[in-house]
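User: Structure tokens for both sequences below?

Assistant:
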Amino acid sequence: MCKQVFLMASALLFLTSPVTVGSAKKTYNILDFGAKPDGKTLCTQAIQNAVDQCAESGGGTVYFPAGTWLSGTIYLENNITLWLDSGCLLLGSKEKKDYGRPRKLHGTEGETFSYWAIIAGKNLKNIAICGRGTIDGQGSNFKYKNGPRPKNVYLENCSDILIEGVNMRSAGSWMQHYRQCDHLTIRDISVFNHVSYNNDGLNIDSCRDVIIAGCRVDSDDDAIVLKSLTLNPCENITISDCLVSSHCNSIKMGTESGGGFQNINVTNCTICSPRYSKVIYGRQRGLAGVALEIVDGGTLDRVAISNLTIKGVTVPIFMRLGNRARLYEKDQSKPDIGKFRNVIISNIIATDCSQIGCSITGLPGHNVENIILTNIHLGFEGTGSKEDASRKIPEKPTSYPESVMFGTLPAYGFFCRHVKGLKFQNIRFETSSPDYRHAIVFDDVDEAVIDSMDAPFTPKAAGMIRCTNSQNIFIRNCRPPNLTELFLDLNGSRTKNIMLLSNDLSGVKEIANSSDDVPQSALVLLANQLPK
């Protein structure tokens, strides 16, 4: 029995140790290079010496034992693992001069690399930051908007990267930024970033083949955010099993979208309003649960989002195709309006959301295309008025995209404009207070389906569904509450081929109302249960 326990303990030690037994790779303890764990002595050079010697010997592990280590910018090299043991606290220096010193890039003819981060690297392969230690940027010392501010981690044009287990907190800017990297895995990390401006949690920029799993990300600015600050897209990305919170957007694609976002899967995540921090940007409760944005050209295509629970954010779902047209490369011409298509969002439960409502909006002549939302249950505050229901919403093509950009929407559920190919299936809305707006508004929408919608109706409210200059709309399998005064409101001379099919309208006072410019043939009723 004792022998079995000894063997089990030995196996556990083998699995958790930074040293690979029997390998030529070695472990380099930063203590052996003069680093001091007092939190006062600057250890940048000692740590860098450990990294460089490890790299010169072919790679291995640079080991940070328990203690507090003060450092400026540390530059990684190929085949290096930084192992931060339990009880290790890597503190970013409070001094600007300790960041961004130039460093010659290996394999180049005099090219240098400089970046303001605690850990930085460029053009590297097979690198890792692991362990149960903490990286603290002390970012409250860099709370200004102009000039560089240090991130905790910055990696550019690197491949085969593992970030695992570590805790990250209090960066001067974004917590971590991975730019044009390949084969990146971020697993089981914890992020808390609430001390300065632009305190994003985790930024993936123009990267490919990325897995983000089992992470806890709590940030003032956007939490888990995909960007393309180049003309290359973020591509082949999986985000799963994460707990996410933000005063801005919890899971976001954009705002920067030069290359766009393609082949993205987000699943099994929990999103909630921040509980342990006060807002710097955004709103105390958070702006959006999920925000999908293409505004600088680029293409958003093949995005699947499923199995999310969302509590307490302002807007649970926001989708925007705009035309800010920011440039990302030298001599780049102004980009055309991008493409936004092929998105499936399913199995979403959101509660305690604001009165604003969700939106899916393109631009005139540039539609959002092929969107499916299925098994969606959204709870809102309500309180919208009939005046809100009739508000004219400006296009704002060049505005910064944000879920609150249009103000209170004409629909407490979804406001959809300039969309082609849209399907709602098994969708349920709730409001905690009476709301006099529409549940759904279609404006310049073509080829849409509403299948099995459950929504409340407030007496004297606007019609439950409004279609303005929309066509080829199929509404089926709905059962409005008894005493619903108006189910369908039709407007605009381009409104046509609106079909009500197999709905139970027996409790509705008025099925449809049409403005004078709507063609008489626009509405078709087939196989509905009608009022007696």
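Moving on to the next sequence.
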Amino acid sequence: MVTVLGSRLDPSGPEYVANREAMLDKLRGVEAEHAKAIGGGGAKYVERHRKRGKLLARERIELLLDPDTPFLELSPLAAWGSDYPVGASLVTGIGVIEGVECLVTANDPTVRGGASNPWTLKKALRANEIAFANRLPVVSLVESGGADLPSQKEIFIPGGALFKDITRLSAAGVPTVAVVFGNSTAGGAYIPGMSDHVIMVKERAKVFLGGPPLVKMATGEESDDESLGGAEMHARTSGLADYFAVDEPDALRQARRVVARLNWRKAHADPGVVEPPKYDEEELLGIVPGDLKAPFDPREVVARVVDGSDFDEFKPLYGPSLVTGWAELHGYPVGVLANAQGVLFSEESQKAAQFIQLANQRDIPLVFLHNTTGYMVGKEYEQGGIIKHGAMMINAVSNSRVPHLSVLMGASYGAGHYGMCGRAYDPRFLFAWPSAKSAVMGPQQLAGVLSIVARASAAAKGQPYDDEADAGLRAMVEQQIESESLPMFLSGRLYDDGVIDPRDTRTVLGLCLSALHTAPVEGARGGFGVFRM
């Protein structure tokens, strides 16, 4: 039986060309915001950092990782749209060190000395969550002045979870390594204090609960940075430093040796040589329409992402607006759920629930490709049981134990976002294309609902309705919901792990699958709760 997907995409057609140009335009906007994160605190502070003989955060990561291996940066747009710099003064991601996939974090000291703001905290907590779920060793490249004091009310109380995470990772047998390049003071001192392995840089690392001014105020004692918390003191006297580095490259070399000696093994062997898709990944740029109301066939995406474009579709004639099936991606087996026509009906919901159960029986990770306006509404569908059938799908997603990967390609609205494993349903990783939108419903629908309710309220009170004011209100609401549903807004709030170029989808998913197979992949064997029939 031939299961290689065919393709009807016409890359020379006007519709494809228009879609491609719209996607490229959105990509340019995302790249401009990424550039802000890479720029750190700006040219002035980057130059000052370099004059001190220090490497930038991403340069440290580059020296830490194995040569010519990829780094999957996570949440690069954190804090976008807030009062804080894009990137939240922290770089996080997954990279390979001495052949071991690790979760790497690096403070960016060019942004307010690497101080942590509320979005830094959220980003760091998300990184720890990823490390814990996938059993990835954590390497922290530390240089931070601690909390951004003006925002301490949003950092201090929840910030204690960072230290809790480090100890829980260690207790779970997941190694933690701290490399200290500069300040790691006050609460930040507990990062090396709680890590399994600690490396400090000579005459640069400063680790103490209270610096000389605070010590003077608290005890009257005169002290200096080096005797109070310098690398040599901690290496020779306190014993906090396990390794003493003469400079930054030496510290990174020693960190690589620590990882090499971890005796760390993946739960699953890496696949061998895999067959690439039959179709060009470049063509992914022109599949999603600029107008998300226009449908597109998600099989065209699947054909350009999975190995050999080989896809065994499950129940192809039943519930056709949700495509489900089995494939391999970079050699790893996956089950794919992809929205076809946007709306989820009862049949699609029941089909999804069965498919998710099967994946759990077989210990197969699931990939969710979003383009849904939600579950179908209307008298016919309510009478047909759409609530209980939608709940069945959400129940299955909620209680599934195999890893989930979600990619928002187009719309992801309403409870359909939940059924397709949105952020609240703990996917191992969730990424968005620049074309994606996510909200409780579409902007026009939401504004229209508010208008209908306001009109009915006026009628009930016997009051005239101001149609001109209504039009203005609808326009304002539509604009607000549109702006709040865009991927950069959502990524800034860490509702995804990054906005990616569609052409990178196969690579990103492959890196995620490889990382998550560091831990055992085991599905639920029952325990799905009550399915209302």
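User: Anything stand out in the second?

Assistant: The radius of gyration is 25 Å.
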